[in-house]
Task: inverse folding
């Protein structure tokens, strides 16, 4: 009950736009929540969608490494591409995130899985040059930079601390959040938001307890959200933005998404109402899509967007699942592995009634269960050990 009251207080402050909590005194509150699926499948041209941003009444996004140097304008309801802007004097070595102020769009070409890049940069283009329909072209100014503490540039694929996939702009500065493969922390650096060559300024490092893949700051400049994942479970972190420069950054709220297991969340953004939007790229278990969280719903004991309820029990090669769906359609249950191979599947016609099914042809190891009907979908993990869980 105490955690619930503290969380409600936090979100009241969040929604009123005031500073969340004193970052030096606050403790991290951790909850699990199921985000609402808004766009279940983006167009295939955006299978590698990375950054996400609200622009006017649309989304902006792009692909990451090897994609075209192009920003896509996306309808927020259908997911259809309305327009695109190609940056003619840029390449997409590894675009990972986008951010904006009132005048410019910033595109972060700083993905560095291998850890050996010496051409890190951020492209800056005027927002007025973005296509609101059809296809257009523009040129970009360039902000080049290097990390102040990187000594070695030897290739170390996913074993280095100088990868980066998250950026926001605040008070004339660009803030970068690194993806530290070796220790699962994140370092924060800043850069001027104007063209030139710079050495990034180190601010602080914090325990991300996972890999950070996206960032944004609320329109009132009060709150920061980061997205990432740990052991294939996506999550977001919320911070007080006033701590960005102080070096005393501490996570106030962590929200895990265990029921979209193995969704590779890559982009996150606020809209003008404070709603948080999260994008995920295409994987063997999930299509590229976009999810939504309304902060006012987080303290609720019952998630109104939760449609599936289940219990499971595993004994060796047999899994029994009791399930209920409170939607209006028939639903499906699939038994898969993490690579997307389907071992068994059934279609259930009973709505809002608990039914039990036993699956006997399952491998020894970890199992993934997917339940879906239309946009409603959950994906959760069953470990190889014999046990039972009620959800």
Result:
């Amino acid at each position: 009950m105490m955690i619930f009251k503290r969380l409600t207080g936090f979100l009241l402050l969040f929604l009123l736009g005031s500073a969340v909590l004193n970052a030096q005194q606050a403790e991290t509150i951790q909850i699990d929540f199921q985000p609402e699926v808004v766009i279940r499948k983006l167009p295939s041209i955006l299978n590698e969608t990375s950054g996400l941003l609200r622009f006017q009444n649309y989304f902006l996004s792009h692909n990451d490494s090897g994609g075209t140097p192009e920003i896509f304008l996306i309808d927020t309801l259908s997911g259809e591409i309305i327009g695109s802007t190609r940056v003619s004097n840029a390449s997409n070595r590894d675009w990972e995130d986008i951010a904006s102020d009132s005048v410019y769009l910033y595109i972060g070409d700083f993905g560095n899985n291998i850890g050996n890049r010496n051409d890190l940069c951020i492209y800056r283009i005027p927002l007025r040059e973005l296509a609101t329909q059809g296809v257009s072209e523009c040129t970009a100014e360039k902000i080049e930079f290097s990390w102040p503490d990187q000594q070695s540039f030897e290739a170390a694929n996913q074993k280095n601390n100088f990868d980066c996939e998250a950026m926001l702009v605040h008070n004339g500065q660009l803030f970068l959040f690194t993806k530290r493969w070796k220790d699962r922390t994140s370092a924060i650096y800043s850069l001027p938001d104007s063209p030139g060559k710079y050495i990034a300024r180190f601010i602080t490092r914090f325990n991300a307890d996972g890999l950070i893949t996206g960032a944004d700051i609320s329109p009132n400049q009060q709150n920061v959200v980061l997205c990432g994942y740990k052991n294939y479970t996506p999550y977001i972190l919320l911070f007080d933005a006033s701590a960005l420069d102080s070096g005393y950054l501490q996570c106030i709220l962590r929200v895990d998404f265990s029921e979209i297991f193995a969704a590779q969340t890559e982009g996150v953004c606020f809209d003008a109402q404070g709603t948080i939007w999260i994008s995920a790229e295409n994987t063997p278990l999930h299509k590229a899509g976009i999810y939504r969280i309304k902060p006012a719903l987080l303290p609720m004991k019952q998630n109104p967007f939760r449609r599936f309820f289940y219990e499971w029990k595993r004994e060796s090669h047999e899994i029994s699942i009791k399930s209920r769906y409170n939607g209006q359609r028939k639903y499906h249950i699939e038994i898969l592995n993490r690579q997307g191979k389907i071992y068994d599947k059934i279609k259930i016609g009973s709505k809002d009634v608990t039914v039990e099914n036993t699956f006997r042809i399952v491998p020894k190891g970890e199992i993934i269960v997917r339940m879906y009907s239309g946009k409603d979908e959950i994906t959760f993990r069953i470990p190889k050990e014999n046990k039972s869980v009620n959800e």
Q: What stands out?
A: Residues 28 and 206 are 12 Å apart (CA to CA).
